[in-house]
Write a structure and sequence with these properties.
The complex is a heterodimer of chains A (214) and B (475). Chain A has 214 residues and is α/β, with parallel strands linked by helices. Helices cover 31% and strands 15% of the residues of chain A. Chain A is globular, with a radius of gyration of 20 Å. Classes of the chains: A alpha/beta (214), B alpha/beta (475). The complex binds iron/sulfur cluster (SF4).
């Protein structure tokens, strides 16, 4: 998993409450055998004017010019600014996969749905909860100034806006540790690599037939 | 040192270390993979820039959605008509090629259902920890191995670290003593056990099957029993190693030979529970009392002897159970108190990782030999568990016996067990099936599955309704 320490990035708006995971990535895209490649269909129903289906050439589809992520000024955004209860609905891990594949590393919102919140941490994405009035003011500043970029500092647990204002946020210490070091479950286990190797060597010595090539 | 169960021994010998949260890292010797639960795990490895920890621990074969008709099979992967299935099988091929994993491909004679090819090839051996992204991995427990199913994220975890994060289970002994009557198969034994302990009876336990009945049982029979441990709620089912185990393993393509065989045999001989080992739960059943079984409902615990009548909900006092019976009767289209032998059948399926090995083929063939399928049975298919089982059966002429009796002889795969390919039930159709799950819709939308052993399925194909196979055996 990618580590998350300190990110300076462009902010983009997802300006509505209760964005569910079906809106983030519609169900017809879940048949895939992959967990990458969902980026072009992130927010599919909002981004395009036609109905999406898997395997399409998305570059040929009519774009919705009203949708923020399609606008020139938000291209390359890495931080998504959202409203209440972001990520509600089905538990699909495809939602963080799609955000990540699109290039989003952090979502800031006043609140998140539980499973989505958990799934973010498993996939190297940082969900940041800030008070509603702070989120309001960030929306305002972002709309006012093109190229509005902020700093999300996980080590210091702070969001820093261009005028130098700092907003502290809470994060579970174990999850923070894992994100800072890029440790998913597998990463955690691999911290014990030496123990595993030692065990394996003993086993190879006592039961060599287990290690023959197939 | 205190006395240990077989499970304790297997756990201890694979214990790498305890983690801070109290769970354990357990070393995995063998990882079997198939096309449905592996693609996202490979993808995860790629995204994280990781490699397989030990490539020679992994063996692959496509099984869940390969077609079983020779017409569709002849063109290999390209011939699979269903797009999703074809892409999954192709992806397994590609992933195995990329990572260097040994794969028995679609038309390789060694291809077959994951849980059949493991023991058959000797890739799965006594004393191993064995995992696969499929809940019936417990089949391998018949070898005296610690084997269970895992999810896709765990598949990736084992790929990358050769370990699984696990918590130790409790020990249960299911002891069946005495002798089975003629015509009573290992499938009947395990269905009777599930009928007794219920589908949640083994939850949280590793089950060891012990007692005279299992000592006398063949390895393939033990596999049938361990296969369905999960239907009794236990992720793990196993049988101690004895001479039968060693005789089965010896000479398999991947089994050790020469000096290494001697070493292995010495270790494997210790794979049994110590005489005074402690079990947290013990269930005892008299083997002589077990009759051929038929499931009548929508859960494997809804099972009865063939001589019984379907339950009547009005005899049930517990309101939850009563409602469960009512719902199952409605879904299954059965009447309370109806004799099991009155259930008419539309289809018969002989196959799946529960009952698709050579002994199952022989047992079914012996029943249909010289007889004809009943006209009301639209289709009766026999699907061997692997290309090698198929070849062996053909060498013995079993295919001809089936075909002459009006049954179809197919290519190996999971087939109608889960209906991911074209083999499925129509709505409302009753099927005598040797598979392991009779959940609503499992074998096709609205389909009605009755779980039975291969002899009973074969007898049902002949009679057109359920019949005690022992009646046919007398003539
Ligand atoms: S035969 Fe059925 S139960 Fe066995 S592995 Fe295949 S789908 Fe699963």
């Amino acid at each position: 998993m990618k580590a998350f320490t300190r990110l300076q990035g462009l902010l983009a708006p997802m300006d509505r409450a209760n964005v569910d995971t079906d809106l983030i990535i519609p169900k017809q895209f879940l048949k895939s055998i992959k967990r990458s490649g969902f980026g072009p269909n992130l927010f599919d129903e909002l981004r395009y004017l036609d109905e999406g289906y898997p395997g399409q050439d998305n570059s040929q589809r009519p774009i919705n010019p009203e949708f923020a992520l399609n606008q020139e000024r938000y291209q390359g955004a890495q931080i998504l600014l959202a409203r209440k209860n972001f990520g509600c609905g089905s538990s699909r891990e495809h939602a963080p996969w799609a955000l990540d594949d699109f290039g989003i590393r952090c979502v800031i919102a006043p609140s998140f749905a539980d499973i989505f919140f958990n799934n973010c941490f498993k996939n190297g994405l940082l969900p940041v909860v800030l008070p509603e009035d702070v989120v309001d003011s960030l929306f305002q500043q972002m709309y006012d100034k093109e190229g509005y970029s902020i700093v999300v500092d996980l080590e210091a647990q702070k969001v820093i806006s261009p005028d130098g204002s700092e907003y502290g946020f809470e994060v579970d210490s174990f999850r923070r540790h894992c994100l800072l070091n890029g440790l998913d479950d597998i990463g955690l286990t691999l911290q014990h690599s030496e123990d595993i190797k030692k065990f394996e060597q003993q086993r190879r010595a006592s039961s060599p037939w287990l290690f023959q090539d197939l | 040192m205190s006395a240990k169960t077989l499970y304790d021994k297997l756990w201890d010998s694979h214990f790498v270390k305890e983690r801070d949260d109290g769970s354990a890292l357990i070393y995995i010797d063998r990882h079997v993979i198939h096309e449905v639960t592996s693609p996202q795990a490979f993808e995860g490895l790629r995204l994280a820039g990781r490699d397989l920890w030990r490539v020679n621990s992994v063996i692959a074969t496509p099984d869940h959605n390969v077609p079983t008709t020779s017409a569709e099979r002849s063109a290999g992967v390209a011939g699979i008509k269903d797009d999703v299935a074809r892409i999954q099988v192709q992806t397994l091929d590609d992933n195995c090629a990329d990572f260097g994993v040994r794969e028995f491909k679609i038309n390789d004679q060694r291809q077959g259902i994951v849980h059949v090819i493991g023991p058959e090839s000797g890739a799965c051996l006594p004393g191993m920890t064995i995992v696969c992204g499929d809940s019936h991995t417990s089949t391998n427990g018949a070898l005296g191995a610690l084997a269970h199913g895992i999810g896709t994220s765990e598949v990736e975890h084992v790929f990358a670290s050769q370990c699984l994060v696990a918590k130790k289970m409790k020990n249960m002994l299911v002891k069946v003593d005495g002798e089975l009557g003629p015509g009573v198969s290992p499938k009947d034994v395990v269905l009777a056990i599930i009928g007794k302990i219920g589908t949640a009876g083994g939850t949280g336990y590793a089950i060891e099957f012990g007692g005279q009945v299992f000592r006398d049982m063949s390895m393939e029979g033990r596999m049938t029993v361990c296969n369905m441990a999960i239907e009794g709620g236990a992720r793990v089912g196993m049988v101690a190693v004895d001479q039968t185990t060693l005789d089965y393993v010896k000479g398999r393509p991947y089994a050790p030979t020469g000096e290494q065989w001697e070493m292995a045999e010495a270790q494997w001989r210790d794979l049994h529970s110590d005489a005074d080992a402690h079990f947290d739960a013990v269930i005892e059943i008299d083997g002589a009392s077990i009759e051929p079984q038929v499931s009548w409902g929508t859960s494997p615990e809804m099972v009865l002897p063939v001589s019984a009548t379907v339950p009547n909900p009005s005899n049930e006092n517990d309101p939850v159970k009563k409602e469960g019976i009512e719902r199952a009767l409605e879904y299954m289209g059965l009447n309370a108190d109806q004799a099991i032998t009155d259930i008419q059948l539309d289809r018969v399926f002989i196959g799946s990782c529960t009952n698709s090995r050579i002994e199952d083929m022989r047992a079914a063939a012996a029943v249909v030999k010289g007889r004809k399928k009943a006209d009301n049975v639209k289709e009766a298919i026999v699907v061997p568990g692997s290309g090698l089982v198929k070849a062996q059966a053909e060498e013995e002429g079993l295919d001809k016996i089936f075909i002459e009796a009006g049954l179809e002889w197919r290519e190996p795969g999971c087939s109608m067990c889960l209906a991911m390919n074209a083999d499925k039930l129509g709505a409302g159709e009753h099927c005598a099936s040797t598979s392991n799950r009779n959940f609503e819709g499992r074998q096709g939308y609205g389909g009605r599955t009755h779980l039975v052993g291969p002899e009973m399925a074969a007898a049902a194909a002949i009679a057109g309704h359920f019949i005690d196979v022992r009646e046919l055996m007398q003539h």
